């Protein structure tokens, strides 16, 4: 039992082979390709999550909700299940912001650019901006619009990708506006706490309604689905639609 046994054993780790610059470049290229594959898979995952949730796939399979479907079919927690929805919604927001920008010249010259661009965003990055859909959409739209007006030619896909990635980075590193200072008068303070409690309950109701009428449906489309459901749980339809909008946007004006 000595060094000879270790050297001859099957578990012995081979000594690393020194690489020259050309070999190191080959290894680096393979690593970069693997990383790109992981990033592309995020976009594929988000699209399939969106389609599955919109189709309410849990119902025909006998699951009571999206969360229970994910737990039963994939063995993931409720929190992970809803993080997948955050990824899908954030990427949908970004795609919509790009589509709303006047990039028709780019689409005319490069048909492939009309397809969903690979933005190279991680799940972590998308989750980080999912709570600020208006901020990320406005930033992307404004920057692409400014780029389209200042350049003689429409931006190519690589430029659009860079703009999107920078916008996501900026939103992630810039905190949202600080809330107003709490009032010193006890009566407004008590009212603020009551409003905060109401918002928390509304968020819960809105998330439940999103399981019935997914986020990809407009209010008009959701109305036909929610009218009977809201009646069953004892709230009026307008309240239900408002709660659903609040769960989507976190904007109390909903």
Structure overview:
It contains 11 helices and no strands. The chain is an all-alpha fold and 254 residues long. It starts with a helix and ends in a 5-residue tail after the last helix. The chain is globular and about 70 Å long.
Could you give a quick summary of the protein structure above?
This protein has 254 residues and is mostly helical. The protein has 11 helices and no strands.
Topology:
Layout: H1 3-8, H2 21-54, H3 66-74, H4 78-100, H5 104-109, H6 123-129, H7 133-150, H8 157-173, H9 186-212, H10 219-233, H11 237-249
Overall pLDDT: 78
Order of helices and strands: HHHHHHHHHHH
Radius of gyration using CA atoms only: 24 Å
Strand-residue fraction? under 5%
The tally of structural domains comes to: 2
Structural class: mainly alpha
How many distinct beta strands? 0
- Low-pLDDT segments, ≥5 res: 1-11, 104-116
Please name the defining characteristics of this protein:
single chain; 254 residues; mainly alpha; globular
């Amino acid at each position: 039992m000595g060094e000879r046994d270790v050297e001859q054993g099957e578990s012995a780790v081979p000594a690393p082979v020194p690489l020259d610059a050309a070999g190191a470049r080959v290894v680096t290229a393979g690593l970069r390709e693997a990383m790109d594959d992981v990033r592309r898979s995020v976009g594929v995952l988000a699209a399939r999550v969106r389609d599955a949730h919109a189709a309410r796939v849990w119902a025909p399979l006998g699951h009571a909700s999206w969360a229970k479907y994910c737990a039963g079919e994939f063995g993931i927690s409720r929190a992970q299940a809803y993080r997948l929805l955050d990824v899908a919604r954030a990427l949908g927001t970004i795609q919509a912001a790009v589509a709303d920008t006047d990039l028709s010249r780019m689409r005319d010259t490069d048909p492939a650019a009309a397809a969903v661009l690979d933005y190279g965003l991680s799940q972590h990055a998308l989750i980080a901006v999912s709570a600020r859909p208006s901020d990320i959409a406005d930033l992307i739209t404004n920057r692409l619009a400014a780029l389209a007006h200042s350049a003689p030619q429409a931006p190519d896909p690589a430029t659009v990708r860079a703009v999107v990635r920078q916008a996501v980075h900026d939103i992630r590193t810039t905190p949202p506006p600080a809330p107003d200072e709490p009032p010193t008068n006890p009566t407004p303070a008590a009212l603020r706490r009551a409003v905060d409690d109401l918002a928390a309950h509304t968020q819960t109701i809105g998330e439940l309604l999103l399981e019935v009428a997914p986020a990809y449906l407009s209010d008009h489309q959701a109305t036909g689905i929610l009218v009977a459901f809201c009646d069953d749980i004892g709230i009026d339809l307008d309240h239900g639609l408002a709660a659903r909008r609040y769960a989507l946007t976190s904007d109390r004006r909903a």
